[in-house]
């Protein structure tokens, strides 16, 4: 409920820059916690960089509800490590060769080592979380991790399933993506000892933002450009992951026969044709609309918390996602 | 230290039977903690049975140091879930088709679902461990889990590596197998609030027993019979896991050229010939000797703790392993 000047996405990250720097250093330093034989692998995947969105959300939620403490930095590190662990396993599922323009762990060392590497990172992240003296924090982190894995299972299980409903889709992405966004915001506030309504508002903010973010990411995989994203696009279609635009098109009943035939062709899916059809049927636009609505709902949650520069930083992240969506 | 009548392996399990029954029920009930879409998978792997050695060690260590409480049962459930998670991922590494005479998870659902299923179980086990109000317990469990994964990575990394030393081998099996045995015994005593020397003695007992057990299991894979074990034997050789008898033979310098050639043939290893050579060179016997010595050292640790029927149960488990080894 603020009339204060909004800030930009870049300014939001600047606000927490020293802390993010510490997070980055800490992430890179984690390799040393492993057996020397394992260190190199961990170092590779932890040093690959990334947007560090989850740490940013944890730190901004911290600042929005109090002082950013060492505990918040720990939280940021742990959530990012869990995220990295899931990416490592994701790349196995998808047979992805590249991750941020570098060879993926599975491309470099094969699936066997990579399965175990993900496990190691995962176990290590949860081990770090036991340093919180309050076991509620530790439990909430383990809950989020279990949710991410469950979401990934359901997604894998439902590949090439034309009966997947939009409700199923939302449930999957809420688990696999929004769970960590939500934990970042909720626990950021919890560690600041914010009041339950504030913690609740930030948790909901994180969930809605996370779902919107995944919808954006899914649109990007369909209609983005490879130069921009640094990853192979169209992967979802080839792997039978039917995302929101596709599901909305199927739901609309338009050209359903053609679409179904296209979707079930696995590695031979004609992505360009499909994207053209999604575009002309308005399915991309409809998916964008859902994401916009979620961003609005996320922003409305922030009206429940006191305004300060960090709260404006959270707004900036949500608004930035909106502006990224505009381009489609 | 005790002149009391030793008890048998079967009697040791009988002592803790009601608690083991609860553990079994609890393990089977865990599936319900997951998303309905995931429940069936968890239920399959958790319902497959098993020797439940880790729960038995936790419960006997509990009884040896005090009263068996609900916390000990929780510990037993958590450690067994971590063990199940690692088996699920192991079967992917090994391309194993069977686990306890049933199709393995990867044979049933493919590697993608199975990677995620292992992750889910793992995250869930660590989530359960956050219910201990003492975060030391939770941390010790996460440590053990991370150690198991690190051990598995090193093992995978060193496949077909003829330079693997016996020291490397001991380090690998101490991490991948003994870590959970050790945590079971140590935490069983810790939850009973035993004195630090008693906790330390049980921890060392668990480590030594775990290493001995893995040596036995490795001998079994070389020289056991399939009817007896319900699993495909010779897997280690085909997968390039050089275990103690093989390493001792290489170390002895006898027939090294022939052995090396045999070992590097991957799926075409002539297991029968190799086992005959290991036998005649005395390498199987030497490996047995190492395991016996470890069992003696493990038993000596129990002299540090007060005798009661549960302590005798721990002795019975170690002695039983010795008698299993006798047959080779």
Properties at a glance:
328 residues; mainly alpha; Farnesyl Diphosphate Synthase; two-stranded antiparallel sheet
Quick description:
Two copies of one chain form a homodimer. Chain A is an all-alpha fold.
Return the structural class of chain A: mainly alpha
By oligomeric state, this entry counts as homodimer
Largest sheet geometry of chain A: 2 strands, antiparallel
Mean pLDDT of chain A: 90
As a whole number of angstroms, the C-alpha radius of gyration of chain A is 20 Å
Flag low-confidence runs of chain A: none
Helix content of chain A: over 70%
Which strand-content bin applies to the residues of chain A?
A: under 5%
Biggest interface between chains: A-B, 45 and 44 residues
Per CATH, the superfamily of chain A is Farnesyl Diphosphate Synthase
Shape of chain A: globular
Number of helices of chain A: 16
Succession of helices and strands of chain A: HHHHHEEHHHHHHHHHHH
Strand order of the largest sheet of chain A: 1-2
CATH architecture annotation of chain A: Orthogonal Bundle
Domains of chain A, number: 1
| Spatial gap, N to C terminus of chain A | 30 Å
- CATH-assigned fold name of chain A: Farnesyl Diphosphate Synthase
Strands of chain A, count: 2
Question: How is this structure best described in words?
Answer:
2 copies of one chain form a homodimer. The first copy, chain A, is mostly helical and 328 residues long. Chain A has one domain (9-326): Farnesyl Diphosphate Synthase (Orthogonal Bundle). In chain A, 74% of the residues lie in helices and 1% in strands. Chain A is built from 16 helices and 2 strands. Chain A has a two-stranded antiparallel ribbon with strand order 1-2. In chain A, strand 1 and strand 2 form a beta hairpin. In chain A, helix 9 runs antiparallel to helix 15 (283-302), helix 9 (196-223) runs parallel beside helix 16 and helix 12 crosses helix 15 (283-302). The longest helix of chain A has 28 residues, at 196-223. The first copy, chain A, is globular. The model of chain A has no long low-confidence stretch (mean pLDDT 90). Chain A binds chain B through residues 34-35, 37-38, 41, 89, 92-93, 111-113, 115-120, 122-124, 126-127, 129-133, 135, 138-139, 142-143, 145-146, 148-154, 156-158, 175, and chain B through 34-35, 37-38, 41, 89, 92-93, 111-113, 115-120, 122-124, 126-127, 129-133, 135, 138-139, 142-143, 145-146, 148-150, 152-154, 156-158, 175.
């Amino acid at each position: 409920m603020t009339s204060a000047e909004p800030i930009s996405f870049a300014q939001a990250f600047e606000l927490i820059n020293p802390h993010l720097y510490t997070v980055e250093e800490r992430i890179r330093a984690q390799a040393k916690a492993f057996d020397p034989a394992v260190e190199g692998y961990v170092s590779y995947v932890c040093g690959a960089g990334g947007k560090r969105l989850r740490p940013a959300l944890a730190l901004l939620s911290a600042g929005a509800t109090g002082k950013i403490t060492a505990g918040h930095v720990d939280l940021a590190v742990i959530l990012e490590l869990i995220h990295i662990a899931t990416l490592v396993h994701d790349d196995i599922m998808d047979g992805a060769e590249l991750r941020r323009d570098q060879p993926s762990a599975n491309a470099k060392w094969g699936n066997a080592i990579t399965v175990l590497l993900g496990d190691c990172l995962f176990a290590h992240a949860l081990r770090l979380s036991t340093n919180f003296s309050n076991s509620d924090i530790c439990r909430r982190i383990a809950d989020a991790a279990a949710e991410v894995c469950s979401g990934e299972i359901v997604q894998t299980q439902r590949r090439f399933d034309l009966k997947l409903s939009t409700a199923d889709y939302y449930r999957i992405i809420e688990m696999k993506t929004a769970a960590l966004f939500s934990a970042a915001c909720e626990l950021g506030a919890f560690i600041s000892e914010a009041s339950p309504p504030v913690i609740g508002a930030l948790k909901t903010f994180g969930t809605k933002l996370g779902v919107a973010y995944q919808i954006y990411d899914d649109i990007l995989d369909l209609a983005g450009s490879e130069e921009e994203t640094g990853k192979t696009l169209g992967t979802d279609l080839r792997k039978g992951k039917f995302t929101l635009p596709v599901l909305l098109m199927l739901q609309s009943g338009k050209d359903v026969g053609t679409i179904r035939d296209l979707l079930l062709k696995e590695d031979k899916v004609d992505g360009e044709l499909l994207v053209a059809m999604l575009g002309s049927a308005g399915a991309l636009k409809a998916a964008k609309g859902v994401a916009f609505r979620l961003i609005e709902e996320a922003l409305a949650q922030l009206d429940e918390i006191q305004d300060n520069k960090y709260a404006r930083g959270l707004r900036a992240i949500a608004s930035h996602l909106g502006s990224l969506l505009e381009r489609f």
